[in-house]
């Protein structure tokens, strides 16, 4: 990220969920999705823009509450500001929570980069009776202040102009600095003298001294390593003042109170806002749970009711219709080519595309809930339940996305700050079976169990939930033994959902899904097709069948025939593949439908074992690939897949052998 | 390490036996208090401070149901806090 000489660099900073990404997207025209959930941008992004005849670089830093190394985001942001020295920081502040937002400003003012403050959501603040006078704020802080309504694009260009001007007048930058309380000033300057000569180049010594006093772990470790024997002296001084960080922080808040005294008027306490009124019910221990259940039931009901007919339509017209058309077109071509195109490409990738309507509807609904601010309440309500899984409330978001598709769900785990808690969530999320996986049970259960199908389906659905809880507990014990996941989460104000924001988030998630479909799934579809086609040109004598037959003794132990085992393996490609593979292997055709074929081959006990394994089996390839990208570890990814495989097979065997023992359905 | 810090700090701001401690979880919905002290490891305390939980700040509990996280309002924003985190915040009820 070295700077090239011409062109200024403007970095966007601010606390989480204040609208930085909205400003960045407005200026760069990018479509990165934003949501009403704190902490979506965890890495910095960079873009080039042309503004008023100048080429500028724009950097979107992750949202941070402060500059102490409490989280990866905070480390990234402060390291960038100090080491890369942007020409100016455009700090986006939320008008409603201005005082808290100024805490970050108080920290940023200690760094040698000029600031311009843009107070966002002025309109929302006004609707709550909060009046902010930017001119008074500007004269108190001696930092340029502009008003912003980023959602509507208002004020963004004047904010950028102000930032540009500040960058050009860097030398006259003289803001009002927050000072540490008088009782700690001596120790701070003492500390500064001790470390002055040893602080590495771009880091300001006064800032490092302040961070040491605050007990910043990263800076402490760094200085300890740098100073060697000289550290003892510093350490002794720090021990004497080990509560100094209250003085540092307290000093900042006192400074903030002085700064906003003339500029901000708040309504009298006790006025109930719309958010307060809704939250009385939405976060209530009884009503809140009922509301959550209703909201989720409505979302799933809507997705199924509208999505399944659409999927069927696409299946008939896109996959079968287009496949037949291609087959007729390729009638003269070699048979393997026709088979590759029709079965491998259209059958594999096309089937995935038929899932799109369901996913679009589901993600649209989730986007609506997220943008309104409701999902944060869902996290609040489910926190206790999540603790029984070794997780906490924030994991509810990825887990609920899982029902639609595990791929974007695994990515949603980024909302969890603690790396270990995030890893656990990444690994647990794919336990929740997605729509396609559930659809296999919905189709096959009535064939095996007749009128008991509903009850047995419920039992089957509870299996992954139980395993999720058990695995969560185990992972928590192994990775975070005795460690407690602190649950601190900001609940954003409710807002009327904005179609633009929802569509952007929907688009982002669909792209994630299609990206998987286009790369890995295409590759694996063709590979699997090849295994099921060669050497004989038909699946019954293919390599896949051959291997399936080799696995026969193992399969028998779980009550399966080799066709069933192969069907399970192909579900790794796409979860709903089980059905199409079975149809092919059992020779389903005009004379034989799937239920007759399956009914003839399997007894109910084997069917139960099969469906249990189907719902617990390894997640699809696209999910595995996402786990690898998100954990950045092959070890965890492979270990996870092996564990899931062994668990599924073990439980399948257990169920079948138990059924034999009690003579049920054999 | 954690305990040592916690005890030392408690002692520092409240001479032993001077008064009963109240923490944020002792407050019921609609009750407010002023933050006296925050115990716990520095990283957590730093994080809470940056969210506005500083000594002298006024907190209002919006929702507290004896189990599960509590909901509080501070400096114009709303936060969900786990019970354990809330218990680290010592307050003077208003």
How many helical elements of chain A? 30
**If helices are DSSP runs of H or I spanning 4 or more residues, what is the number of helices of chain B?**
3
Q: Sketch the major β-sheet of chain A.
A: 6 strands, mixed
* Helical residues, percent of chain A: 55-70%
Using the alpha-carbon principal axes, give the shape of chain B: globular
Q: How widely separated are the two ends of chain A?
A: 66 Å
State the strand order across the main sheet of chain B.
1-6-2-3-4-5
Mean pLDDT of chain A: 84
What helical percentage do the residues of chain B reach?
25-40%
Q: Which H/E pattern describes the elements of chain B?
A: HEEHEEEHE
Q: Low-confidence runs of chain B (pLDDT<50, min 5 residues)?
A: 1-17
Derived structural class of chain A: alpha/beta
The strand order across the widest sheet of chain A is 2-3-1-4-5-7
Rg of chain B:
13 Å
| Radius of gyration of chain A, CA atoms, in whole angstroms | 29 Å
Sheet with most strands of chain B: 6 strands, antiparallel
Shape, per Cα inertia axes of chain A: elongated
Uncertain segments of chain A are 1-5
Element layout with pairings:
The complex is a heterodimer of chains A (666) and B (94).
Chain A: E1 8-14, H1 20-28, E2 45-51, E3 54-60, H2 72-84, E4 88-94, H3 98-108, E5 115-120, H4 122-127, E6 131-132, H5 134-141, E7 145-147, H6 156-168, H7 182-195, H8 205-214, H9 217-227, H10 231-240, H11 244-260, E8 264-265, H12 274-282, H13 287-329, H14 335-354, H15 356-372, H16 374-387, H17 396-402, H18 406-412, H19 419-428, H20 435-449, H21 453-479, E9 488-491, H22 499-533, H23 543-550, H24 552-557, H25 562-570, H26 577-585, H27 594-601, H28 604-616, H29 621-631, H30 634-661
Parallel strand pairs in A: 1-3, 1-4, 4-5, 5-7
Antiparallel strand pairs in A: 2-3, 6-8
Helix pairs in contact in A: 3-11, 7-8, 13-14, 13-15, 14-22, 15-22, 17-18, 18-29, 19-21, 20-21, 20-28, 21-28, 22-29, 23-25, 25-26, 28-30, 29-30
Chain B: H1 2-13, E1 22-23, E2 32-38, H2 42-50, E3 58-63, E4 70-74, E5 77-81, H3 83-87, E6 89-93
Antiparallel strand pairs in B: 1-6, 2-3, 2-6, 3-4, 4-5
């Amino acid at each position: 990220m070295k700077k090239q000489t011409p062109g200024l660099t403007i970095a966007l900073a601010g606390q989480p969920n204040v609208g930085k990404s909205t400003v960045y997207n407005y200026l760069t025209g990018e479509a990165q999705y934003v949501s009403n959930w704190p902490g979506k941008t965890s890495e910095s992004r960079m873009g080039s823009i042309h503004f008023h005849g100048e080429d500028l670089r724009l950097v979107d830093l992750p949202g941070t509450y402060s500059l102490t190394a409490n989280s990866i985001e905070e480390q990234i942001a402060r390291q960038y500001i100090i080491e890369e020295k942007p020409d100016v920081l455009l700090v986006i502040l939320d008008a409603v929570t201005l005082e808290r937002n100024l805490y970050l400003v108080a920290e940023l003012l200690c760094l040698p980069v000029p600031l311009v403050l843009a107070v966002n959501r002025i309109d929302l603040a006004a609707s709550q009776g909060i009046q902010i006078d930017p001119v008074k704020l500007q004269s108190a802080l001696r930092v340029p202040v502009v008003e912003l309504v980023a959602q509507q694009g208002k004020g963004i260009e004047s904010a950028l102009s102000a930032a540009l001007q500040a960058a050009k007048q860097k030398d006259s930058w003289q803001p009002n600095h927050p000072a540490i309380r008088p009782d700690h000033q001596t120790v701070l300057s003492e500390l500064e003298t001790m470390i002055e000569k040893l602080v590495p180049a771009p880091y300001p010594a006064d800032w490092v001294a302040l961070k040491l006093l605050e007990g910043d772990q990263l800076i402490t470790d760094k200085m300890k390593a740098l100073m060697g024997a000289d550290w003892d002296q510093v350490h002794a001084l720090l021990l004497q003042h080990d509560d100094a960080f209250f003085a540092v922080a307290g000093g900042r808040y006192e400074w903030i109170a002085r700064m906003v005294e003339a500029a901000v008027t708040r309504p009298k306490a006790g006025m109930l806002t719309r958010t307060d009124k809704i939250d009385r019910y939405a976060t209530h221990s009884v009503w809140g749970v009922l509301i959550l259940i209703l909201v989720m039931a409505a979302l799933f009901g809507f997705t199924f009711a509208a999505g399944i007919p659409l999927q069927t339509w696409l299946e008939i017209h896109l996959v079968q219709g287009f496949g037949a058309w291609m087959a007729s077109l390729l009638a003269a071509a070699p048979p393997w080519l026709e088979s590759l195109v029709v079965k491998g490409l259209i059958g594999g990738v096309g089937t995935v595309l038929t899932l799109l309507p369901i996913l679009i509807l589901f993600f649209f609904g989730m986007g609506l809930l997220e943008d309104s601010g409701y999902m944060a309440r869902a996290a609040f309500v489910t926190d206790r339940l999540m603790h029984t899984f070794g997780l906490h409330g924030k994991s509810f978001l990825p887990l609920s996305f899982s029902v639609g598709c595990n791929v974007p769900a695994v990515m949603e785990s980024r909302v969890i700050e603690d790396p270990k808690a995030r890893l656990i969530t990444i690994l647990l999320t794919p336990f929740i079976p997605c729509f396609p996986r559930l659809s296999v049970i919905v189709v096959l259960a009535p064939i095996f169990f007749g009128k008991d199908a509903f009850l047995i389906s419920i039992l089957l659905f509870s299996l992954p939930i139980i395993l999720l809880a058990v695995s969560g507990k185990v992972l928590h014990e192994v990775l975070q033994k005795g460690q407690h996941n602190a649950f601190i989460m900001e609940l954003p104000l409710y807002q009327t959902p904005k179609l633009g924001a929802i569509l952007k988030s929907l688009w982002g998630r669909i792209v994630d899904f299609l990206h998987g479909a286009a790369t890995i799934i295409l590759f694996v579809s063709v590979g699997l097709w090849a295994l099921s086609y060669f050497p004989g040109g038909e699946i019954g004598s293919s390599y896949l069948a051959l291997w399936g037959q080799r696995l026969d003794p193992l399969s028998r132990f779980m009550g399966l025939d080799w066709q069933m085992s192969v069907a399970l393996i192909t579900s790794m490609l796409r979860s709903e593949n089980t059905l199409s593979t079975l149809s092919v292997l059992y020779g389903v055709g005009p004379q034989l439908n799937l239920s007759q074929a399956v009914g003839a081959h399997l007894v109910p006990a084997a069917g139960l074992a099969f469906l249990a394994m189907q719902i617990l089996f390894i997640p699809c390839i696209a999910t595995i690939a996402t786990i690898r990208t998100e954990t950045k570890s092959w070890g965890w990814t492979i270990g996870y897949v092996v564990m899931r495989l062994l668990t599924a097979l073990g439980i399948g065997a257990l169920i079948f052998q138990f059924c034999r023992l009690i003579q049920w359905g054999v | 390490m954690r305990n040592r810090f916690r005890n030392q700090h408690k002692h520092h701001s409240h001479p032993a036996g001077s008064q009963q401690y109240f923490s944020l979880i002792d407050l019921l919905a609609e009750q407010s208090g002023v933050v006296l002290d925050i115990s716990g490891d520095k990283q957590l305390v730093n994080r809470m401070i940056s969210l506005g939980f500083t000594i002298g700040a006024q907190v209002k509990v919006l929702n507290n149901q004896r189990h599960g996280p509590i909901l509080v309002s501070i400096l114009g924003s709303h936060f969900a806090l786990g019970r354990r985190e809330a218990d680290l915040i010592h307050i003077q009820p208003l």
